[in-house]
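Pasting two entries for a bug report.
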Amino acid sequence: MTARAFFDPLRSVVFGDISAVYASVGVVFGHEVREFRLINNTEGDMIFTDDITIAAGKWFIPKGTFLLVDVQSNGRSRDDKFVVAKGTQISVKQVTAPSSGGVYVEALY
């Protein structure tokens, strides 16, 4: 049997919808996610999180950069896989105000 990978639809938020309060980046993950990329294509520094109750956030992404998170690569066996749970919501807030661009989440499941 061949293992297959699929890409979730691109999620995004434009710069004008990003503030000092967390904004959801698209919809929740519809599948268990093996790898995702957080892209900051704005002129401001951003904080991303999968838990908006944590004020400090989880991932700082400077302007014009991205973070690739490959949770599957550390699985110990075929039956022991690391994944991000189905239903996880990625959110973003600004550290510095953006004046253009947007932020994006790409996901592989």
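Entry 2 (this is the one that rendered wrong in the viewer):
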Amino acid sequence: MFEKGKSGNPAGRPKKGNALTDLLELKLDKEKFIEAVIASAYAGEVSIQKYIWERLEGRLPDVHELAGIDGENFKFDIVIRTIEKDK
């Protein structure tokens, strides 16, 4: 147990530098990257188009509807069975 008022990590958070995110920040030319993403979207890359759309407009909610024949209420039965182990 730690004493009240004393840090459990006196050296603090490790310095930045070796994490993948840090290395990308140093090496990535953000302008060129954005241009490449946009070019891919214009070239018809649907996954890139969807990503950009969702970043700009927000993600559409997932809606799932069940309906029976001719739009009537959908009816289903749930069957629960117990399986006994071999002894």
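Dev reply: Rendering is fixed now. As a check, the viewer should reflect this: Residues 20-62 form one domain.
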